[in-house]
Specification:
- By secondary structure, the chain is mainly β.
- The protein is 0% helix and 21% strand.
- The protein starts with a strand and ends in a 28-residue tail after the last strand.
Length: 70
């Protein structure tokens, strides 16, 4: 599959493919501004049909580091 994130003008902001055939896609997207965005998931060759099934899971990104001030 191919995953794309598009802005309200359908401009592509992110494109991601799996590292291995039929593998998962792991992508992180940070919206450049407040607004509406589209997530598109499709077959690489645009040949998806009723026999194709894609599962999309969207979760908030978690911080990579934490800091404390003493």
């Amino acid at each position: 599959p191919v995953l794309r994130v598009l802005d309200s003008a359908d401009k592509q902001l992110l494109r991601a493919e799996p590292a291995a055939l039929d593998g998962p896609i792991d992508a992180t997207f940070t919206a450049p501004k407040s607004g509406e965005y589209k997530i598109e998931v499709r077959d690489l060759y645009k040949s998806a049909g009723r026999r194709h099934l894609f599962r999309l899971q969207v979760t908030p990104a978690m911080p990579d580091v934490s800091a404390t001030v003493a």
